[in-house]
Amino acid sequence: MSRQLLTLVFLSCGAILSLTRDSATPLASREQCLEEHRAWVAEALQKMQTIRPGMTRKDLLEVFRTEGGLSTALRRRYVSQQCPYFKIDVEFDAVGRSNRDEDGRVTLVEDDRDVIVKVSRPYLEFSITD
């Protein structure tokens, strides 16, 4: 597992641990809760890692959704459908049209058939809104 993913899991578990600290909760119950949270984070990471170069935007949108902030049709940040703090950055190659318009600007048109050429590792970040 990569160093960034280990950091992501560690930070997620730490956040979960701080939320579940309650002296009135029996230790066994807290441990069970932590295990469930760890399992959920692992499942979310596995699902995120299914997205690979060569897949389409449509494939990506089964696991992620778009996030606000600055982007283009060929370079965009996505958030996990399971948790908006889990993110990836994705680059695409346009399908059925040029990557740039006649003035040389990156196309603004998105298509479900666009092909993923680069996917960042998953990372944690608070939500961005426009």
Task: Describe the overall structure.
The chain has 130 residues and is of the alpha+beta class. The chain has helices at residues 3-20, 27-48, 57-60; strands at 64-66, 75-80, 86-93, 115-119, 123-124. Strands 1, 2, 3, 4 and 5 form a 5-stranded antiparallel sheet that branches. The longest helix has 22 residues, at 27-48. The protein starts with a helix and ends in a 6-residue tail after the last strand.
Strand count: 5
Helix content: 25-40%
What's the tally of helices?
Answer: 3
One letter per element, helices H and strands E, the order comes to HHHEEEEE
User: What number is the mean pLDDT?
Assistant: 87
What's the story with the biggest beta sheet?
5 strands, antiparallel
The gross shape turns out to be: elongated
Portion in strands:
15-25%
The separation of the N and C termini measures 34 Å
Number of domains: 1
Regions with little confidence, pLDDT below 50 for 5+ residues = none
Radius of gyration: 18 Å
Structural class: alpha+beta
